[in-house]
Amino acid sequence: MLRLIKITGFCGAVALLSMTSRATLVFQSGSTSSANLSVDATADVSISGTTVTVTLTDNLADPVSVGSVLNGIQLDVSGAQGANNLSADSASTVSIDKHKVATTGTATGSTIASNYRLRGSSAITLSALFTGPNYLIIGPGPYSNSKGSIAGNGPHNPFIDGSVTFSFDLSGASSFSESDVTGLTFLFGTTPGCDTSPGVVTYAPVPETSTVVAAMLLLLPLGLGSANILRKHKIC
After folding, report:
1. What residues form DSSP beta bridges with 55?
2. Do residues 19 and 51 touch, judged by C-beta distance below 8 A?
């Protein structure tokens, strides 16, 4: 019985190690798109088995043109042969009228997912432009500088306000990992393929050795404490 408790404590530490060692790739767009428009976006990408989770965020405050607004990404995954089963989390929305007044709202995950599509195989494009030019991801206001492609533009409103998280499945292998991601390109505006910005991996965080050791040391007294209790109340 005593030996079993020691093993359980050790397994708990190993489980914590395996849980915290999962990496998330963080991509940062360039400062300008191929159309020389100001852009600022990030993409957080993680993979578990065949499921990709990606959070897209537009950080550019008070954009002038819809050409600076994020419509999706192209994700390059080695060994992938396609993608399907797209879903999205619910997100805040914003509609900007011709007077540049913003009205906030919400959209369900199913609504957002229905306005985006996946295309491609090893180079997988996730974009709103496959269905229409609305629900693009726009940065924070106050939108005082926004021109007619944003303010009062019916086909382009509403926008997703700031950030949204998507998930989809990869085909081609039984499992993938973040190391299979070979590149990411940000897509901006409402003209497919025209306003792009390459993504750069800014960091891929994993737990520091000191953090893992500290976690294991924190769990160790739990196992030893239980062992000591049993030793005091040992039944022969």
Report:
1. 44, 165
2. no
Q: Which of 141, 115, 139 is nearest to 129 (CA)?
A: 115
158 found inside a domain: yes
Confirm whether 16 is domain-assigned: no
- In contact, 64 and 151? CB cutoff 8 Å: no
The count of other CB atoms within 10 Å of the CB of residue 11 is: 12
- In tens, the pLDDT along 74-117 reads 999 999 999 999 999 999 999 999 999 999 999 999 999 999 99
Tell me, yes or no, whether 220 lies in a domain: no
Phi-psi region of 152 (alpha: psi -120 to 50; beta: other; left: phi over 0): left
Domain range enclosing 193 = 23-208
Q: CA–CA distance from 167 to each of 84, 94, 164, 170 (Å)?
A: 9, 22, 10, 10
Q: Give the chain's domain count.
A: 1
Q: What is the pTM of this model?
A: 0.78
Does residue 15 fall inside a structural domain? no
3-state SS, residue 120? coil
Sheet holding 163-171, edge to edge: 82-88, 163-171, 51-58, 41-48, 25-28, 200-203
DSSP percent split of the chain into helix, strand, coil, nearest 5: 25, 40, 35
